[in-house]
Amino acid sequence: MVWILALLGLAACAPIKVVRVGSPVAYRSMTQNALSSEQASEWSRNTVNEWGLLDRFDDQPEVALGELREIVTKGRGGKNELFALAEFSLLHAQNTGKRPYHLAAAVYAYAFLFPKRTEDSPGPLDPRTRLAADIYNRAITTAFASLDGGTVELTPGRYSLPFGDIEVTVDPAQLYWGDRQLVDLTPVAELEVRGMRNRHRISGLGAALSARAIPQKGVDVQRSLIAPAAQVATTAVFRLQDVHSGISTGRLRGSLDLYKASETETIMMEGRMVQLEIDETTPIAAQLAGSPIWKQELWGFFGRSAVGFPLPTLVSLEPYLLGQIPVVFVHGTASSPARWADMANDLRADPWIRQRYQFLYFYYDTGNPIPYSGMLLRDKLMAAVERMDPKGRDHCLREMVVVGHSQGGLITKLTAVDTGDRLWNTVARVPPDQVPGSKQFRTLLSRALFVKPVPFVRRLVFIATPHRGSFLSGEWLNSMLRGIVRLPADLMSQSIGALTQGSDFFYGRTLMAGGQLPTAADNMTAGNPFLEGLAGIPVADGVPYHSIVAVKESFPVVEEGDDGVVQYRSAHLDGAASELVVRSSHSTQSDPHTIQEVRRILHLHGDSLEMAGLECGPSARRSDKRRTGAPPGL
Q: Chain centroid to CA 111: how far?
């Protein structure tokens, strides 16, 4: 009787149950995969279980993979089996480190994403589509990894597969970029970026890499516009020929192709337009991490360069490309181009801006006299445009926007003013030809203080700019700084005659105050004649200018506030096309409101050009190619 009751009890216990779990637990169970855990996805496990192979994958994974491949090659399996082959091959490769299985994962994922028949294509909402792309991307970085696993090596040759081999070709020309060669192709998917506000990635196909750009043989780095330590966002793509037949025969052919994000974001693969996987942020971070540029910021103010190349310089993070509008960033005192990293990163995340603008950075010793730095910026801009476009065919290049922060805003203004003799008369009692000293120095003074607008500067943006001086500057501080700031040797040597006789020719508190050349701190002191003279000179007609003013939250009345360095009433400009007050400290370049305002201004600038009938961006390059029959750019 007891055993009958036991049997009845067992029969009453249903073998199937449904248990409610929390949403996070359910989602993790549904989305776990070989990339995020040590287990394959539910989709792949279901597929192999239907063929009775799931237990064999645990005990004999290579045998199970071979049997599943045979199911596909004999026509018994389709896209579900290809996806499972891709994921389980990657899982086995990660467990064993066997390179042929990494390569097989890329092959199977490619076959799943690009089927023979259109009707076999995974649907756009099929989550396996994105996962297969990620498996493919990951497999490229591991299948072609260097011995230490730190970089991807684009090496041609015959590579082994678990079921055959593949002949891989590489075009070495794709490793050249402008006047640079790309080396150390570093996968970025597993790198963590710290210290930047945002990390922007474009989901797509291919292994996202950061490449180091080294000068090609014979390149003069000091004349090159590409930054000496530039890191380049690139994408490696593994193309396969007749992949489905190759899976059956065990003989495949393919190519490794490298694309630069500055040139290409989408490509044609198997008759389809495909978005590339791109990470723009990590190369910026990689370039700045450990860079001597941070040490240079303060030392640059004192005139002691620590970056290994002479200042000033105008640099870009990419080669010149026809049809792009230059945006020139000019940093402030004791600062560097590194302070624009967050802004440039967020602006480049906007596809419309990324396709129409190119960013350049003016890097200078910030202790130098401001009119001298302004002259150097104008010289660099003129030389760069002449070098990039000597024939004058790129109209977009001549629609430049200059953005300046703090002292950089004053230097920025000096690109778009017609001073006549007004600046000169604020500092000198006599005409230039009566100034004592060398002719060379008189010429330099004239170039620095008789300013004409740079003809291709079309819009200005001032950020936290002390148009009427900084309240932190003062005579006691300036006197101390004059003793430790080292001005350029050529400037000092040329000025000896004027320095010794300056009291009869120059006004006090100006160019030759106390028998010394002024520093930038002198120039930014409230009441300085040069500063007052510049403030009274309007920006040239036809050049709109915008003001972004930082005011700390602690000031309830904006007009009575400051950012810790510059007061609102000093940064405010009448006649500005727009003014935005950002509740921020002086270093507001990374503030999201500041960045969004610059973004708005760049859209406004580009829209105004389009309304005037000027094509910039991809359409300009297509038009140029139709006219010339040759690829645009240098």
A: 33
